Structure formats: structure tokens, C-alpha cells
Amino acid sequence: MATRFMNESDDNRVRYIFAVCYPERPPHPPTWFQVHPTIVATEDVRDTVVGYTSLIIDPSEKLVHYRDIAVMPEYRGQNFGMHLFQRRQLAGMDLGITSHVGATWAENKRMIRLFENNGFHLCQRVPGYYPDGKEGLIFVNHGGGLIHA
Ligand SMILES: CC(C)(COP(=O)(O)OP(=O)(O)OC[C@H]1O[C@@H](n2cnc3c(N)ncnc32)[C@H](O)[C@@H]1OP(=O)(O)O)[C@@H](O)C(=O)NCCC(=O)NCCS
User: Which CATH number is 2-141 given?
Assistant: First the structure.
């Protein structure tokens, strides 16, 4: 398993992973993955991209917003999510930003484990946060530091 920043030739694959993993969401605009730093995870055998994650740097440059994190269903439970999560955390820290924020929903136990295992804590519940009306659980880490790195 390896992680790296995506390049232009990954765009179609990453959009496909998005469509599989977030079937309820409309596609991102054409320039989305060029604008937001995105990290991909590859499997070792054929070097196939099996997951990705993006971050959004707040214009104040004091906050990193975590956006999509997705692993193809057949590769879940093998730590790809953990690797992507931690690589994203490091990418924010490399920019000198130690306040990181992300969201998920109550049923998404794997995602909650990823936040908890990486030093985040639940700071707020926001009713109707998601387009389908689901409550958002907002997780923050103001130290930016990795627990398991
Ligand atoms: C969330 C997601 C990225 C996790 O990817 P993953 O590669 O399966 O993650 P990992 O293998 O690193 O496992 C993460 C945690 O989930 C746990 N987990 C793995 N399989 C699990 C299962 N079947 N049920 C519950 N928890 C499970 C792992 O044990 C790990 O926690 P731990 O370290 O405390 O043991 C992936 O499930 C996904 O793409 N989901 C769809 C998109 C999504 O919901 N994205 C997040 C939106 S906020």
C-alpha cells in the first residue's frame, strides 16, 4: 500500500471512486480535484488507485477542512482508510496548520473510529448538516498531531 498526491491522469479513477462511495451525491465540478489537494492510496499488486481523500485549506490558512475520504468497497477494512487519513493529517501539518476539522454521521462507525484513533474529538452535532437531512457530527483536532504515527 502506498499514498501519494493525485495527478491529472488519476482524475477519472478518483471520480469513479467518488461515484461508487457517495452514490447519493452529485459529481464535483470539473476543476474540483485540481483546486483541492487530493491524496490517493494505491494497492501493491497492480498499483491501482483504490481510495482517495481531499483537504480544503481555509482562506485564513489556519484551518484544514477534511473533505471526501473513500475506499473502494472491496478494499475496506485493510487500513487504506487509516493511511489516507494520516497522510491527509500530515499534509495539513506540513503547511503549518494544526487545527483540523471534519464531519461524519452517526451510523458511519468506521469513519468515527478514524477520527477517534487520530486524536480528534466530537465537538458539535449539527441537525440537518447533510443534504438528506442527516445530523452531522463535527470532529476537531486542534493539536494536529498524530497519535499512532
Ligand atoms: C470510511 C472509509 C473510508 C474507511 O475505509 P477503510 O479502508 O475501510 O478503513 P480502515 O480499514 O482503515 O478501518 C478504519 C476503522 O474501521 C474499522 N472497521 C473496519 N472494518 C469494519 C467493519 N466491517 N465494521 C466496523 N468497523 C470496521 C477498523 O477496524 C478501523 O478501526 P480500528 O483501527 O479502531 O480497528 C470507507 O468505509 C469508505 O469509503 N466509506 C464510504 C465513504 C464514506 O463514508 N466516507 C466518509 C464520509 S465522512
Answer: 3.40.630.30
